[in-house]
């Protein structure tokens, strides 16, 4: 059985490293997306079903901050119910 050269072994290890790094990056993106979805679900739940004071606070915060955070018109349309059509048009 022929032994692999050091260069071949290094190349194999580098390929494994790249594969593992890609998997890690994918897992981190998936985790980040899940956190955002869950946080958004919590905020929407509190606005819809929470006590009036916290719902009003969140609604005011979203109406104040979200229009400046969103850059695409298609995104603004998604939140039209929260920020209002007049604010989405700005």
UniProtKB/TrEMBL annotation:
Superkingdom of origin: Bacteria
Coiled-coil region(s): 3-30
Keyword entries, A-Z: Coiled coil
Name of the protein in question: Mobilization protein
């Amino acid at each position: 059985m022929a032994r692999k050269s050091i260069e071949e072994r290094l190349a194999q290890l580098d390929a494994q490293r790249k594969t593992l790094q890609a998997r890690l990056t994918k897992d981190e993106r998936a985790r980040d997306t899940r956190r955002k979805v869950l946080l958004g679900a919590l905020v929407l739940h509190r606005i819809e079903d929470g006590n009036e004071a916290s719902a009003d606070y969140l609604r005011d915060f979203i109406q104040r901050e979200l229009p400046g955070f969103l850059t695409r018109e298609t995104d603004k349309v998604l939140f039209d119910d929260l920020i209002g059509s007049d604010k989405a048009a700005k």
